[in-house]
Amino acid sequence: MTKAQRKLHLLSWIVLSICIPLGFISSFLVIPDKIMQENVFLNKSIQLENILTKSSHDNLIVLLRSDSEKSKYQLEVIITTPFKTPEVGTYISSSQNFIMDEAYYLGNLGSANGKLFSLPSSLVQQEQIQVVLFDPIKNELLKQITITP
Amino acid sequence: MSHQYKAIHWNPQKKAYDLLIVLLIISYLLAFVGVSAIIHPNLDPVNLLIRAFGSLSLLLLHLVLIIGPLCRLSARFLPMLYNRRHLGVSTFLIAAFHGILSLIQFHAYGDSNMLISLFTANTQYTSLAQFPFQVLGFFALIILFFMAATSHDFWLKNLGQNFWKRLHMLIYLVYILVIMHVMLGVIQLESSPLLVIFLCIGFSLVIGLHLLAGWKEVKLDRQLQELKDDGYLLVGSINSWEEGKARIVNNGKQRIAIFKNGNEFSAISNRCAHQGGPLGEGQVIDGLITCPWHGYQYRTDDGCSPPPFTEKVSTFNLQLLGDKILVDPIPNQPGTKGEQVKL
């Protein structure tokens, strides 16, 4: 290297020796107290052992499951004939009249044979649970199922 | 020997170096994936690969960056420098895997183009805590791409050594972008302090070594040789040379390497015509001065590479005064014969 190149290298590292620790400390100081990251796991939920209710509806079988202590609940939806629409949102509605923004969104039913959704126990305390399958693309209600826990 | 002379083409050393790189990469990926699969058996495989490639490219970037100063500080590390460009290209490829997988995983499922999504999914550019760190990684990857694409000697020759060097000094910009990419990205979301500790050790090592090596070089540049009445610089007694090795002096503008080869003393520029390597830290092999960085060779008398190679460096005239070797600080034209001292 030439003398000028050697000087440029040293100068660059003097600048970096100031900038990198400054950036490091600044970023370190803004780390949130609450860690937001959660590991993303495959959808391999284990079915809870107790079946509270089971009902069949044309192309669906819907099961309400719980553990032995009834502290955890699951809604299992088994698709016997696939939906034609690619996006099937699964919601829990608090009333017979489904309003998407007010309903509790469980997740996309997807194209798999079936899906398990965790249910907050507060939802299971109601007399009846309205399970709504809704196509958000066409804005079309596909199915509404009433379950009595 | 010229019919067998291969400067930087494929040779056993280069193959061994590349094999080592491949083994290092495979071992790391297997270890990372294996350990992660044991700790988090249900972890999404794409996320696992993103982490594996990301952490490996960070590790390789540190390795690439410490080789230079380590070699300036001790000749023992010179073998690591021999094929560093392949280590650099590997770093780019691993980082590219990390970048492409991240783009697909986090930006491919929306209704806008992945690259548009990269820049518009998070626009909190004024917030440090919420800064769109992926953009920093993206720019680092683009710079690495240009560096990898121009790493071949074809580009070194066509772009010129000075421009090529400056282009490849952008690795320092890449480094700060990557550090901030990690700090504003995964560190903000990571519960374990291990990554912060490793990163802190990593950049302290990189900065420390570069400052140490840079300071050593600047100090050498400031050491001027004793100037004699006739304008020649005093190098030293003829007994102070190791056989086949050089002593380096500084004429205020550049360094001169004065080699002893048997009973002959000859002086050439210390700067290799290939990548500016320190010829004076090399040695005479088969009668040719050999650069310690990549093995480029020059004849002792006229500073020309043996045919079919065409590189040339400047020579300098020498004088013998008693048992002392003196060197004319004014260089001869590259490739012209300099006055040697023959005992």
TrEMBL record, chain A:
It comes from the Bacteria. The chain crosses the membrane at residues 12-31. Keywords: Membrane, Transmembrane, Transmembrane helix. The keyword Transmembrane applies. This is DUF4352 domain-containing protein. It comes from Marinifilum caeruleilacunae.
From TrEMBL, chain B:
It is found in: Membrane. Residues 233-327 form the Rieske domain. It comes from the Bacteria. It is a multi-pass membrane protein. It holds the Pfam family Rieske. The keyword Nucleotidyltransferase does not apply. The chain crosses the membrane at residues 20-40, 52-75, 87-108, 128-149, 170-189, 195-215. Keywords: 2Fe-2S, Iron, Iron-sulfur, Membrane, Metal-binding, Transmembrane, Transmembrane helix, Transport. InterPro entries: Fe3_Rdtase_TM_dom (IPR013130), MsrQ-like (IPR022837), Rieske_2Fe-2S (IPR017941), Rieske_2Fe-2S_sf (IPR036922). The keyword GTP-binding does not apply. Its main location: membrane. PANTHER family: PROTEIN-METHIONINE-SULFOXIDE REDUCTASE HEME-BINDING SUBUNIT MSRQ. This is (2Fe-2S)-binding protein.
